[in-house]
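User:
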Amino acid sequence: MHVSPLVWCLTIGLTTALLVFDVVVIGRRPHEPTRREVTLALAGFLGLAVAFGICVWLISGHRYGTEFFAGWLTEYSLSVDNLFIFLIIMTRFGVPRAYQQTALLIGIVIALLMRGVFIALGAAAINNVSWVFYLFGLFLIWTAVKLAKDSSDEGEYEQSALISWVERRLPATSEWHGTKVFVRVAGKRLVTPMFIVVVALGTTDLLFALDSIPAIYGLTKEPYLVMTANIFALMGLRQLYFLIGGLLERLVYLSYGLAVLLAFIGVKLVLHALHENELPFVNGGHHVGWAPDISIWVSLAVIIGTLGVTTVLSLIVSNRAQPAGPSGM
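Assistant: Predicted structure:
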């Protein structure tokens, strides 16, 4: 797939313009968005993602179109799981509802910048080190096992060392000053609670990127598709936060579903690494002929099937677990 520098620049430019527009609009009037507002915005972002995928399909062929949709769905599902922690962070720091939208937006901007670095590093590793797929695959399998074991503790948030350092070392005020991250009080420059929340959101997403970036590179090796899939996944995350905040608690099997996806992609990466093997201590440095390459169509089917089954089972179980209302006499 050939992507010209012009297309890269246009993509990054349009993304930047959209984010700046969001920042300006929300910054002028911080508020808790209405259900109608977030529904329309989310529908718009989803529509743009689908339209983009169709354009990739028509211009570059069904292979790359399918890779984009597989990568986008995987990144989006992993982002939904991130919302659990975002909710906890907002509660932990007592962020007023009117300011949560701004905090999420700035956090998403930071996340996009950091993921851009991760994507570039991943592309460089793939192009220069063939055995990196072994590392990616084994790491995803390990992450999947850990996620499945720790799924019952997904409501816990461990504060990072960076946040603890910020709270101890930087002069700060405990009072909220709208959406400002810095204020000047009595001639002294202080960081606000909004600054700490934004750093918490950004660094938390950095940890999530450690598994999401290797996962999508297991579905496509095209950096442009990896980047655009992440952009569309994160773009609609803010609206999704307000739209399904209550529904998140009902997705009781989401972590297990994501564990299955990560394990599947991890195995896919290891098989691909064996198929392309150049390590001298594995099969004498020759390709392993019996190792199949799992097609992108099979990957897309597994992704859609796993997410569908996980969602349906979660809603059935959570509905049964809800206490029944008082019965009439």
